[in-house]
Design goal:
Shape of chain A: flat
Structural class of chain B: alpha+beta
CATH topology of the largest domain in chain B: MetI-like fold
Oligomer: heterodimer
CATH topology of chain A: MetI-like fold
Number of domains of chain A: 1
Radius of gyration of chain A: 27 Å
Distance between the termini of chain B: 68 Å
Number of strands of chain B: 8
CATH architecture of chain A: Orthogonal Bundle
Number of helices of chain A: 14
Number of strands of chain A: 0
Largest sheet of chain A: none
Strand content of chain A: under 5%
Strand content of chain B: 5-15%
CATH superfamily of chain A: MetI-like
Number of helices of chain B: 15
Structural class of chain A: mainly alpha
Distance between the termini of chain A: 54 Å
Helix content of chain A: over 70%
Largest interface: A-B, 99 and 99 residues
Order of helices and strands of chain B: HHEEEEEEEEHHHHHHHHHHHHH
Largest sheet of chain B: 6 strands, antiparallel
CATH superfamily of the largest domain in chain B: MetI-like
CATH class of chain A: Mainly Alpha
CATH architecture of the largest domain in chain B: Orthogonal Bundle
CATH class of the largest domain in chain B: Mainly Alpha
Number of domains of chain B: 3
């Protein structure tokens, strides 16, 4: 009887100690997560909610933000979107940039990664380092460099093209038809991260697969499309996702090269630049918030679609879906 | 007899095959490497361009026939005056002569190798002759850029901003990553998913309210809006550190816990010393990130030129490129110098860090 009581007491004490331990775990864990939780609410979640709130007001940043300095205007800002002469063309500029930039931003680093991964490449480490180098160059320096190297007269690209027999090479940043693509070139100059990630993906493909395929008589091209691509599909998926997110925010090099009007002739007027101009040049915070909401929704929708299709197309070797 | 000849011929065949396979391997290596060099040349062309432009005078860009590398016309001093050298086609082949008196259809020249022969006349249009250039880099552009912009101040500002922000990020992200790896919390996985999904968040979605908030606090026109958020962790760096912390075995922390060490002490004396590679990677990433940041400093520091980091401080050089190519190029070189040097010094940690964020997701 006494023995039984003692066991009960021990287990009770044990239980209380376990729960004390768990409680301590919670307290400490929460304490360590606190910086992020506070930051998430203060700098991310509440500002987004507030952006939506502002999109229903006519607040202009010329006056201090307080009640009385702004009015609720209902859906007026959203209606203004319909008559906005810049919103649609600028979304077109952004979409064109994305549609060209995302595939290029996958294929070119993949080619570089395949090259660096080739055991036939002599001194592949040097190649990897030098291919990566442009990625660490600050955006502003990159804009200066490409403004020069793509100069229609003295730029080395056009000099090279002329030497190769192109009679009239594009006038790049002076030509509205080519300015957007010129920024695509600037963007694919800095694909070092994608290359390194793809390279790691390539190195992670088990060599037995290639050996087995060679025995079965599969050539290098078949092996690439039936082994390499499926095996590195998670990495491809990651790169495409990062590319999509980046494309819908992209505008700083356009601002540096084309100014707030997106010159030449608005061909560099990206959608986020339209937002930047409304908010911080014209101080139309209310209307700018509508544009911000659109950037947010479009980005979310694009990544949502990507994940929906990604889950079906990406092959996870370990069988788990992340 | 018959059998011997058969063996020797098959040996020959196998030798041929082996030699052929070696030759083929060498050819393949040369082919792949040449392809690589070609790609690299295209890729590094802009860098070569900016270095070359920064080291040459703007007048060279507009001179027809001038070479692409920094150069100045070679001259020959004849009787106290410098005359330009030209490669002139003559009956005796191409001769290198100094042009003393240019005319339309003929010119007076002097031979630098035989000045005692004096000035003589030669047929031909001097405008069609090739001027001789010598490699002659100049630092004039760097001098001009340095005089026009207060680079020391821009460097100091960028260094301070990057350093303080990196310290904040390291403190916050290490704490948060530790919280995510070593503690059982209800809803921890959901919190982690929320953290990762903030990567998708465009900065445009939050910047207007943040601007209003920082303005209310009187922080606009100071560095505070750029520095304070760094002390509250970000998804990329927390993810990178968390992946690394998870690979550190728990035995040591458990032993320390039994010895009575509190979780904070375990973090400082056990986890951090073992996570140096990941911490280095985060340090470099974040330092670069702040060094390159343009949008936020532009918005929060508008007009406060004394506080500008280098990115915003040299932004104007992009559009003045047409007028002063050399000076703009020199500015670009100055701005990319530090990141490039840091990258070369720490490239291994750098690339490992990228792999962690990109592959292990």
């Amino acid at each position: 009887m006494s023995a039984v009581t003692q066991t009960n007491m021990t287990s009770a004490r044990l239980r209380s100690r376990v729960s004390a331990h768990t409680r301590r775990q919670w307290t400490w864990g929460l304490l360590f997560l606190l910086p992020w939780i506070i930051g998430f609410f203060a700098f991310q979640l509440l500002p987004i909610v507030f952006t939506v709130f502002l999109s229903f007001t006519d607040y202009a940043a010329t006056s201090e933000f307080k009640l009385g300095n702004f009015n609720f205007v209902g859906f007026e800002n959203y209606q203004r979107l319909l008559t906005d002469q810049i919103a649609l063309p600028s979304m077109g500029v952004t979409l064109k940039f994305a549609l060209i930039g995302i595939p290029l931003g996958l294929v070119i680093p993949l080619l570089m990664a395949l090259l660096v991964n080739s055991r036939r490449l002599i001194a592949s480490n040097i190649f990897r380092t030098l291919f990566y180098l442009p990625t660490v160059i600050p955006v502003v320096a990159g804009a200066i460099i490409f403004n020069g190297v793509l100069n229609s007269q003295s730029g080395w690209l056009n000099l090279s093209l002329k030497a190769l027999g192109v009679a009239e090479p594009p006038r790049w940043f002076s030509d509205p038809a080519w300015a957007g693509f010129a920024l695509n070139l600037l963007a694919i100059w800095a694909v070092g991260n994608a290359m390194i990630i793809l390279l790691a993906g390539l190195q992670g493909v088990p060599t037995e697969l290639y050996e087995a395929a060679t025995v079965d008589g599969a050539g290098p091209i078949t092996q690439f499309f039936y082994i390499t691509v499926p095996m590195i599909s998670p990495v491809i998926f990651y790169n495409v996702t990062i590319g999509v997110i980046g494309a819908f925010q992209y505008f700083v090099p356009a601002l540096l090269i084309g100014g707030t009007n997106g010159n030449p002739q608005g061909s560099l007027m990206f959608f986020p630049m339209h937002f930047y101009r409304e908010a911080f040049v014209y101080s139309h915070m209310g209307y700018a918030s509508v544009l911000a909401v659109i950037i947010f929704v479009v980005t979310m929708a694009a990544t949502g679609v990507l994940f929906y299709f990604g889950q079906r197309m990406v092959y996870y070797a370990s069988g788990e879906v992340s | 007899m018959a059998t011997t000849s058969l063996t020797s011929s098959s040996t020959n065949k196998s030798i041929y095959r082996r030699v052929w396979s070696v030759v083929r391997e060498i050819l393949a290596r040369l082919g792949v490497t040449s392809l690589g060099l070609l790609m690299l040349a295209i890729f590094l062309l802009p860098l070569a361009y900016v270095l070359s432009t920064s080291l040459k005078l703007d007048s060279q860009l507009t001179t027809p026939g001038a070479p692409l590398w920094p150069a100045s016309p070679s001259t020959y001093n004849y009787e106290g005056t410098d005359y330009p050298l030209y490669d002139i086609p003559t009956e005796d082949g191409v001769r290198r002569l100094a042009l003393v008196g240019p005319h339309r259809e003929d010119s007076d020249v002097v031979d630098p190798d035989h000045p005692e022969q004096g000035v003589f006349n030669i047929k031909g249009r001097w405008r069609t002759w090739d001027a001789v250039y010598r490699f002659d880099p100049t630092l004039q552009n760097f001098y001009d850029a340095w005089r026009q912009v207060n680079f020391l101040r821009l460097f100091r500002n960028s260094l301070l901003l990057s350093t303080i922000s990196t310290i904040g990020t390291l403190i916050a992200c290490i704490l948060v990553a530790y919280g995510f790896t070593r503690f059982q919390l209800p809803g921890k996985n959901i919190l982690f998913v929320i953290l990762i999904s903030t990567i998708v968040l465009p900065p445009q979605a939050t910047i207007v309210p943040l601007y209003i908030l920082f303005n209310k606090l009187g922080w606009t026109g100071t560095w505070l809006p750029l520095l304070v958020p760094a002390f509250f962790a970000n998804a990329y760096d927390v993810f990178l550190l968390r992946q690394y912390f998870m690979s550190i075995p728990r035995e040591l922390d458990e032993a320390a816990m039994i010895d009575g060490a509190n979780p904070f002490r375990i973090l400082v004396s056990i986890i951090i010393p073992q996570a140096v590679p990941a911490i280095t990677a985060v340090t470099i990433f974040h330092f670069f990130f702040v060094w390159n940041q343009y949008f936020e400093p532009l918005v929060y520091l508008l007009g406060k030129e004394k506080l500008y980091p280098i990115s915003v401080g040299i932004g104007a050089f992009v559009t003045t490129f047409g007028n002063y190519p050399g000076r703009s190029a020199a500015t670009a070189v100055l701005a990319m110098l530090l990141p490039a040097v840091m990258f070369f010094l720490a490239q291994r940690q750098f690339m490992q860090g990228i792999v962690v964020t990109g592959v292990e997701k």
